[in-house]
Design a protein that fits this description.
By secondary structure, the chain is α/β, with parallel strands linked by helices. It folds into 2 domains: 2-117, Rossmann fold (3-Layer(aba) Sandwich), CATH 3.40.50; 121-274 and 303-321, Dihydrodipicolinate Reductase, domain 2, CATH 3.30.360. The protein has helices spanning 11-20, 36-46, 73-82, 97-109, 124-132, 156-172, 274-286, 296-315; strands at residues 2-7, 26-32, 50-51, 63-66, 86-90, 114-117, 138-144, 176-184, 193-200, 205-211, 218-224, 228-233, 238-251, 256-267, 319-321. The strands form 2 sheets. It has a 9-stranded mixed sheet, covered by helices on one side. β2 (26-32), α2 and β3 (50-51) form a beta-alpha-beta unit. α3 (73-82) runs parallel beside α4 (97-109) and α6 (156-172) packs across α8 (296-315). The longest helix is centred in the last third of the chain and has 20 residues, at 296-315. The chain starts with a strand and ends with a strand. Residues 2-118 form the Gfo/Idh/MocA-like oxidoreductase N-terminal domain.
């Protein structure tokens, strides 16, 4: 049985904690957080040994999940990898491309699994749309939520939009040619909403909108191909497909009538908890039952595009940057 540890017991860390408790293939043997009160409370509740120093877990664990704040990821991940531990690190892995590359280099040199927590990759609807789309011409996404002051210091690109960036890079599969970004500050010193256009060398375009100042939560993506439109709901994991039907045109002395019909299909999607699916994939990679679903280069590309986009918004520039 695989012994695992968990570092970071905030909102995301608690999600991991609850799921690890239900997974038979592993034993959660340690939880860690910088706040001793949180550690003591959750340790008493779960019966799992608690720590405030993550290095004290090393002798007892084979693999570790890092759900600590992003600014601590590099230091913690590096120490864990050097100690020979397989890692699942919540996205973004770091806010620095060179640091991310270094972590992957260490993992590769020590034959360790380093998995980045892009949970939407394991959304049933996302997995299905990758199978059925062939040549996306245009992709638009909308990911909006209510403002949460606990995340006011976080970039909306690295916190929210990075999911959609990762998905469109995989769907379109062409090198990025240029990025345009525009956003505005409302509640914080960073952009609270933004619209980003990504142009690809195959002439496909992605338009991504993200906001943390909405009164409702919406997470959609629409993929346009030559003869079909695919509308994906991340929350319900539903996909609706719209295809061109019959077109009729009637011309008379008095009027011109134009009728355009379409065919709507609803795709059956196997729905599972995406985070649980992601954790199971990580476990299966560690135990040798499966291989990574994406390459290291794709992980680094997603981060690089997100960092370039975030850079544009931080500078307050409406313009474009080339990779």
């Amino acid at each position: 049985m695989l012994n695992v540890g968990l570092i970071g017991l905030g909102k995301m860390g608690k999600y991991h904690l609850n799921l690890y408790s239900d997974i038979r293939e592993v034993k959660l043997v340690g939880i860690c957080d910088a706040n001793p009160e949180v550690v003591n409370e959750l340790s008493a509740k779960t019966g799992v040994q608690g720590y405030t120093n993550y290095k004290e877990m090393f002798p007892y664990v084979d693999a570790i999940t890092i759900a600590a704040p992003t600014r601590f990821h590099y230091e913690i991940a590096r120490e864990c990898l050097l100690a020979g531990k397989h890692l699942l690190v919540e996205k973004p892995i770091t806010t620095n491309y060179d640091q991310a590359r270094e972590l992957f280099d260490i993992a590769i040199s020590k034959h360790l699994v380093l998995h980045i927590g892009h949970v939407e990759r394991f959304n049933g609807a996302v997995q299905e749309i990758r199978k059925i789309t062939e040549n996306p011409r245009y992709v638009e996404s909308k990911r909006v939520a209510q403002f949460n002051p606990n995340f006011k210091a976080d970039s909306i690109v690295l916190d929210l939009m990075i999911h959609d960036i990762d998905i469109v890079l995989n769907l379109i599969g062409s090198p990025v040619k240029a990025i345009q970004a525009m956003g505005s500050k409302v509640h914080t010193e960073l952009a609270d909403f933004a619209t980003v256009n990504i142009a690809f060398e195959n002439n496909a375009i992605a338009n991504l909108h993200v906001s943390r100042m909405s009164q409702i939560k919406e997470r959609f993506m629409t993929v346009y191909e030559d003869n079909a439109l695919y509308k994906l709901d991340f929350t319900t994991q539903d996909i609706n497909i719209y295809r061109q039907g019959q077109t009729q045109q009637t011309i008379s002395d008095k009027e011109l009538r134009y009728k355009n019909e379409f065919i709507q299909e609803r795709l059956f999607v196997y729905k599972e908890n995406p985070l649980k699916s992601e954790i199971m994939h990580f476990i299966n990679c560690v135990t040798g039952k499966t291989k990574r679903t994406v390459t290291v280069e794709h992980d680094l590309l997603s981060l690089n595009v997100a960092l370039k986009t975030d850079e544009l918004l931080r500078k307050g520039i409406y313009g474009q940057v080339e990779l």
